[in-house]
Amino acid sequence: MPQGQVSVTPADGLTTRQRRNRPLLVVHTGVMKGKSTAAFGMALRGWNQGWSIGVFQFVKSAKWKVGEEEAFRALGRVHDETGEGGPVEWHKMGSGWSWSRKQGSETDHAEDAREGWAEIRRRLRDARHGLYVLDEFTYPLKWGWIDVDEVVAELTDRPGHQHVIITGRDAPQALVDAADLVMETTKVKHPMDAGQKGQRGIEW
Amino acid sequence: MPQGQVSVTPADGLTTRQRRNRPLLVVHTGVMKGKSTAAFGMALRGWNQGWSIGVFQFVKSAKWKVGEEEAFRALGRVHDETGEGGPVEWHKMGSGWSWSRKQGSETDHAEDAREGWAEIRRRLRDARHGLYVLDEFTYPLKWGWIDVDEVVAELTDRPGHQHVIITGRDAPQALVDAADLVMETTKVKHPMDAGQKGQRGIEW
Question: Where do the record's region annotations for Disordered lie (chains A, B) (predicted)?
């Protein structure tokens, strides 16, 4: 099939232009690393379109920082100073979300995760960002901390033109069903199989 | 297996530290989109480490431009102005490589591709970059324009600490064999199956 050619034209009553501009729900799942990396790669394109980028990392440690964070913070400053690209917000669950007055409950990650989702829901309803990266968001769903059906309903009904990328292993089936694009990265060969240790600039 | 734990310790006589710092040859292949996107995501981490990033796109059109190009050019300027991150060079085959005095032979892509590889080989020998992205480089290999065995020999013997990421469908077996890390992205579900057209910020 030639690139850009669609295999079926859906009977959804939309024009090609409307269909082209439909906001997407993207899920990057599977057991391999590279899920977040690919999501941040997509976010580069969104940044270049001038979209407001909102990253929400559902990671437990406040200390854990990937190179993408520094790079996107730099791109956010480029936008603030020159108007090029889009604005960038980067939030981490860590030991408390940055918008929260609470220090974050080192012991109650479920509560922290629910607070993160509540804020994302508010932003979705306000159509605050053009692109959301909900990094490792499948885990609080998988562990039952956040209700999958509520998330799917909220995402399905989101107003405006907001793209959402969700990463993490074991994406719940209801989320996969609701997604427009689901990508899975498979390992063909990995250096850790041959005793290679994780290294700076590659793994973080 | 816990993250960061290796499954075997190779009898290569290297210390863990040496092994941790081994430069990697990475291949992103498979039929899905997302190969280049993931490679550029990895390059964000390298940029944050202060590595010199060299991107070489083996694409035919000079007009084709992905959002990542603008974002990395912005990051390169951030480096030049503030010293943050690493320097960035972005070269496209298009209608002639930027370093070339020739206009580029719109008709002889094989010749253009060989010229690109000759320059990359020079840079590898000089250890010019910390990270190379050879985007869509599998195609000139597949079409026999550039000799796979020569490429593999050159990559295997590259001096210093240079990471190389190669993207494109149908990576030749000799290249896969030589690689430290091979990633393949599989489609679980794609919007073009449902008549979704490619769109700005997502597909480019």
Answer: 1-20, 85-110
